[in-house]
Amino acid sequence: MKIKTFASSSKANCYQISDSETTIIIEAGLSLKKLFKLPDFDISKISGVLISHSHTDHNKFINDFLKLGITCYMTFETAESLKLDSTFVQIIKSKKSFKIGSFTIKAFETQHDCAGSVGFWIKSELENKRLVFATDTFYIKYKFQKINYYMIECNYDAEILEKNIELGIIDGCRAKRLKSSHFSLQNVIEFFKAQDLSVCEKIQLLHLSNENADAENFKNRIIEITGLPVEVY
Prior knowledge:
The structure is a single chain. The protein is of the alpha/beta class. It contains seven helices and 13 strands. The protein has helices at about 30-35, 60-65, 75-80, 160-165, 170-180, 185-195, 215-225; strands spanning about 1-10, 15-20, 25, 45-50, 70-75, 90, 95-100, 105-110, 120-125, 130-135, 150-155, 200-205, 230. The chain has a seven-stranded mixed beta sheet with strand order 7-8-9-10-11-12-13, with helices on one face. A six-stranded mixed beta sheet has the order 1-2-3-4-5-6. The longest helix is centred in the C-terminal third of the chain and has 12 residues, at about 215-225. The protein is globular, with a radius of gyration of 17 Å. The protein starts with a strand and ends with a strand.
């Protein structure tokens, strides 16, 4: 299974997952104009697009894909919020599996400040590899088994956030939203402590805050508790 992170921030999110048969996109936060310039992107190979929730940085350019007849998968709440009118919108439900080519996919609920927000469990039936993707959530209640790759938000460090509140860099309202809708380093650590990492090959930390994160520290802390290769975006 190959993983490409094209964008991961509060401005834009877009990821590509592929095996030897099928390629999918997670999040449509980058325009096709920008994607076409990337050496690892080939629109003719895209079999579907997964959308986790209704915030713009995750779906701003969804119509680029829909206009080309590429099916986009999302919950009813997300589709309703985006007011999409296309036969290529496929409604999915939490904990109900569906297929895109050689991938079996199951959405699971995440804890964000919009209705219908989900993460994705993805299995390549060809390679027998499993991936978990979750971003924009302050907590993940599930324990996963036999996951080879994790793509997990690690947005902020609670200690850095508190210092920034004291310094007036982050206002109280914004801090309150962060705490109730995004994954802190401290919660990510507890998440990985609860997981079976026996077959895990790599962890990607996603969606880091510009003001409230320390990429090198995040990487080292997760390596320390997991003993696994960690990439930070």
